Amino acid sequence: MKIAVVAANGLAGQSIVAEAVARGHQVTAVVRSENKSQAQDVLQKDLFDLTKEDLAGFDVVVTAFGAFAPEVLPQHTTSLEHLAGLLENTATRLLVVGGAGSLYLDDSLTSQLSDAADFPAEFQPLAKAMANGLARLRQFDKVKWTYISPAADFVADGEKTGNYILAGEVFTVNEAGESAISYADYAIAMLDEIEKGKHLQERISVLGK
């Protein structure tokens, strides 16, 4: 498959590129600066400057975009608006590296993980910004999107086990009562979803076994 990974220089982006290349896919890194990933091709361009022509011909576009400073948190919404707008009414799928804070606490799908009393206050603004982005993405009914939330503990240098648990919109823990996943195992889950394409216009979640 032809896969574009936006923000491929980030740790999550690099992990996804590495897994995709290892599986034999043709990967283009979309980066603002010199490419640091294993991608075979490079498109050096800011996400917000991308055009329909730039993304034409790809089977899948993955966005691993992240914004963390308070003044840029709204870009979690505007970046998805821009990419979804470019991919409307096309066959190209959009897969999003999401956040865990917007996962729901139970099947009523009312309260989110970020609403819990023990959710770290320092992560509240980021969680809310990412939740807003997901809410906006849900409004694009002519885009083949999939939003993949990682576990609560998203471990950059964690072990690659090759195993994960696929869950849905509700916050889930493993048999040990833990919610954690390495970037490497998240990348495996991402590529499995890219190759199988079973969850169009859905948010799913993944965690380590």
From TrEMBL:
<dbReference type="InterPro" id="IPR016040">
    <property type="entry name" value="NAD(P)-bd_dom"/>
</dbReference>
<dbReference type="Pfam" id="PF13460">
    <property type="entry name" value="NAD_binding_10"/>
</dbReference>
<protein>
    <submittedName>
        <fullName>NADH-flavin reductase</fullName>
    </submittedName>
</protein>
<dbReference type="InterPro" id="IPR036291">
    <property type="entry name" value="NAD(P)-bd_dom_sf"/>
</dbReference>
<dbReference type="InterPro" id="IPR051606">
    <property type="entry name" value="Polyketide_Oxido-like"/>
</dbReference>
<feature type="domain" description="NAD(P)-binding">
    <location>
        <begin position="8"/>
        <end position="192"/>
    </location>
</feature>
<dbReference type="GO" id="GO:0016646">
    <property type="term" value="F:oxidoreductase activity, acting on the CH-NH group of donors, NAD or NADP as acceptor"/>
</dbReference>
